[in-house]
Amino acid sequence: MIETKPNPLDFRPMHERMQWYIDENIIPFCTTVVMRGTDVLDVAYLSGTKPEQTVGADTIMRMHSSTKMITSVLAMMLYEEGRFALDDPIEQYLPEFANPRVLRADARSADDVEPAVGPIQVNQVLSHSAGLSYGFIEPDSIVDSAYVSAGVDQTSITRMTLADLTERLGSLPLAYQPGTSWRYSFATDVVARLVEVWSGKRFDEFMHERVLRPLAMVDTDFWVPESKIGRMARLFDPADQLRPMEPGLTALRLEVRTDGPPRFLSGGGGLLSTVVDYLSFVRMLVNGGEWNGERLLDAKTIELMRTNQLAPGVGVRFPMWHMPDTTFGLGFALKEAPAKGEPAGAIGEYHWGGMAGTHFWMAPNAGITGVCMTQRMPAFWHPFSRDFKRLVYEMTS
Question: Do β-strands 358-363 and 368-373 pair in parallel, antiparallel, or remain unpaired?
Fold first, then answer.
């Protein structure tokens, strides 16, 4: 369970707004947490009317891209040990990325390439500015079509190892010259493979050793044991993925591995976890790298992770939406200006989330942290999470 500190704040308007999304059949359920510093001010487990829409502290959810924050922290632990420099070419550790080729600006096929003007650097894979892609976000593009043709897609990668993935990625063209733009991509899975090379251990083994065990994250892994499968949340598909406020949800029947870790240990999106577990990780970040007597990172390293790594004028933008006034550091998106209804203290917020709606944001200037979790595809950039954040800022300002 998550204990709250006594406080005079009334979070009922936020609870009511989140419950409205559930009652309107836009999201199936929602867990919210609000912290000031490392003190929890409010926790809410908001459920729907059906049994599969019940949520609690021990509900196990698919974290999808929220996994990326842990992967980035693992890499920065090895950075503190001097295993690499941020401007190191990744080909120094992964030779398959030597001599990268880049699609020409007027390319009409994946063969219309030119040499990269420089190597891909470690800080560029940590900030999604390396020129890699994902193969599914912009399926009609030349670069994503090349990924699918090469078997680098969301279905095929499950049969690969991290090493298999980087071998294939190294043979594919980059979407742009390294360091010149931003594109969501397999970059954090490349970081996971780098963690294996730097540590000399399998990615999940190193993760257990350096993050999960120290933070007592007992329900976090790439698989769910049979004894815990009853706590696994259902994932829901909306009536219309292109209309986020359209009511209507269908529970998906997806298999979850129960007999051990999968072959593909996706550092970019493979973890399953609970709000209790991930809150320990978030508290460690907010507390300058330390939690429950365990120091995982130096506070200066976390500050470095919150430093923009993108070229001047480059921001976070997806083909279907963009995140205004947002740049990217070493594993986190960075807020450069407050959104409508947010205070100036929101500037400097660092955050990320998962495709199914697991959102985490930390605002050091405001001293406030928010967690908002559901299981709806897609729900990464969804009005419910923006409403949650706006209301939390209103109630704590």
Answer: antiparallel
Give Dmax (Cα) for the chain: 63
Strand order in the sheet with 350-354: 39-46, 30-36, 368-373, 358-363, 350-354, 333-335, 326-328
- How large is the angle between the packed helices 275-286 and 67-80, nearest 10 degrees? 40
Provide the CATH number for the domain formed by 12-67+217-396 in this structure.
3.40.710.10
Q: How many other β-carbons are positioned within 10 Å of the β-carbon of residue 51?
A: 8
Bridge partners, 4 (sequence order): none
**Which residues, given as ranges, of the chain have pLDDT below 70?**
none
Cα→Cα distances 48→12, 168, 253, 381, 384, Å: 17, 43, 18, 21, 15
With CA atoms as reference, report the closest residue to 69 among 299, 335, 362, 287: 362
Nearest to 330 by CA among 359, 294, 357, 301: 301
- pLDDT, position 255: 86
CA distance 266 to 351: 20
Residue 320 confidence (pLDDT): 78
Whether domain 75-204 has CATH 3.40.710.10: the reply is yes
The pLDDT of residue 130: 98
What are the respective helix, strand and coil percentages of the chain, to the nearest 5? 30, 15, 50
C-alpha angle 50/54/59, rounded to 5°?
Answer: 150
Determine the residue type at 255: E
> What are the domain boundaries of the chain?
12-67+217-396, 75-204
Q: What is the pLDDT of residues 10-33, one digit of tens each?
A: 999 999 999 999 999 999 999 999
SS3 213: coil
Beta bridge partners of 33: 43, 371
Instruction: Write the CA distances from 246 to 166, 209, 238, 253, 375, integer angstroms.
Output: 38, 43, 8, 21, 16
pLDDT of amino acid 322: 81
Same CATH topology for 12-67+217-396 and 75-204?
Answer: yes
What is the residue whose two structure tokens read 């065990």? 213
Specify burial of residue 159 (Cβ count, 10 A radius: 0-12, 13-18, 19+): exposed
Task: Supply the pLDDT for residue 341.
Answer: 87
